[in-house]
Amino acid sequence: MEAKEWKEKLLLEKKNGYDRMPKEEREAMDRYCAGYKAFLDAGKTERECVREGIRLAREKGFRPYERGMALKSGDKVYLDNRGKMLMLAVIGQKPLSEGAQITAAHIDSPRLDLKPSPLYEESEMAYLKTHYYGGIRKYQWVTIPLEIHGVVALKDGKTVSVVIGEGEEPKLVVNDLLPHLGAEQSKKTLAEGITGEQLNILVGSEPMEGAEKDRVKLAVMKRLYEKYGITEEDFISAELEAVPAAGAVDVGLDGSMIGAYGHDDRVCSYAALKALLDLEEVPGKTAVCVLADKEEIGSVGVSGMLTAAFDTFMEDLCQGQDVPVRVCLEKSFCLSADVTAAFDPNFGDVYEKRNSAFLNYGIGLCKYTGSRGKGGASDASAELVAYVRRIFDENGVVWQMAELGKIDAGGGGTVAAYMANRNIDTLDAGVPVLAMHAPFEVVAKLDCYMTYKGMTAVYKN
Ligand code: MN
Ligand code: MN
After folding, report:
1. Per-residue pLDDT for 283 more than 90?
2. Which of 165, 128, 192 is nearest to 44 (CA)?
3. Number of Cβ within a 10 Å radius of residue 160
4. C-alpha dihedral sign at 253, 251, 146, 153
């Protein structure tokens, strides 16, 4: 063998995905990414993602799952958990006693939630107070147009959908200080420059005619009453989320990337969902896709990945085949599909280049996440990583190994540990993202498409 061949055989060399992707796949990639951008525009909250996910699933023949319903190989079902978490399954040829092939991603993203008593007037301007959700860098959320999506639950049992600032509607904003007066603020750290209690959204400045006090606040409340039939007290039972008022767009002169709010983790959620919907043949094992809520605040609650709703769904499916759920789970595999950090040369010193994910190098596999010595990570077994390497290679998936930044530079977690705790062999994998958790995050189209191909490989194996 020539020295060059030996080198190729023996040494790991990362290769740009464009050098490894067949030219004819470019069109499929572009079509896939167009669908993804539409999904992002339709789903700016977890509830909207569930709604859009169900719409897409029904188009492909999925039916709502009901406990006890008889299912046979090839049947496609979904379960809507309280409008915030979606679980879907395609019943496989093999019984559930041989395990299921599961993908788990999350559809909640960092944002500004309205407080229960949000509306106030100050200096004849009306504002909404917010409580940020998830790990945001607060200074990134000022001076950008915002819109509000969510629901208001009324005492009579009705739930009103609210969308403020979409399309041609006026936008909302959190203001920042002008540099001319920012001398003291500029001395603060990035973490302290804008505080949580300063993330107040400006919503009006025109006073209501004839009113004596709180004139601007009253004018705002009147508009909300006229449009949605809600009163100030109704904010108490509402889930209103302020999100960036911008659609998903191509980025770069070459259009090779997508910029949008919410790639974390809708980019993996869409891949996991679309791959399941696109399955053309009945998979060997039952394929399950979980799109969970609340990952950004610890996966807790009835709609987070720790919820018993998932166990119940699996148990119900197993019961239909007289299989104990524990037997199914111990033979199952889960790809915890969540984004990872892409190497950013502008901030190169927080990454360890040899073990970082790069844009256009494909879906990133993370053996472990966590912080301070893998704390909080489930740390997948060597055998499991080998299994995923094999099925990805066999299915033409461009992939790379990824670690989230330098040791002790920070860290993060995913739902992987919660799936692994259920006795499911679990590995993290996902799309590398630039500026993760920012109001405008960037991913490479090639990595999005390869993640879709990766999910397909999981369902088929
Ligand atoms: Mn995530
Ligand atoms: Mn996140």
Report:
1. yes
2. 165
3. 15
4. positive
Ligand 2 centre to CA of 414 (Å) is 8
pLDDT in tens, 294-335: 999 999 999 999 999 999 999 999 999 999 999 999 999 999
DSSP class of 293 = B
Centroid of ligand 2 to alpha carbon of 109 (angstroms): 7
pLDDT at 7: 86
Reading the block at residue 354, the tokens are: 């040899």
Helix locations, 229-277, DSSP H? 263-277
- Distance from Cα 368 to the centre of ligand 1, integer Å: 14
Pick the closest to residue 458 from 417, 429, 418, 422 (CA basis).
429
| Per-residue pLDDT reduced to its tens digit, 199-211 | 999 999 999 999 9
List CB-based neighbours of ion ligand 2 within 5 Å: 264
**In angstroms, what is the span from residue 218 Cα to ligand 1's centroid?**
39
401-419 residue pLDDT tens:
999 999 999 888 899 999 9
The CA 79 to ligand 2 mean position distance, Å, reads 24
- Give 149's pLDDT tier (boundaries 50, 70, 90): very high
Contact 112, 241 (CB under 8 A): yes
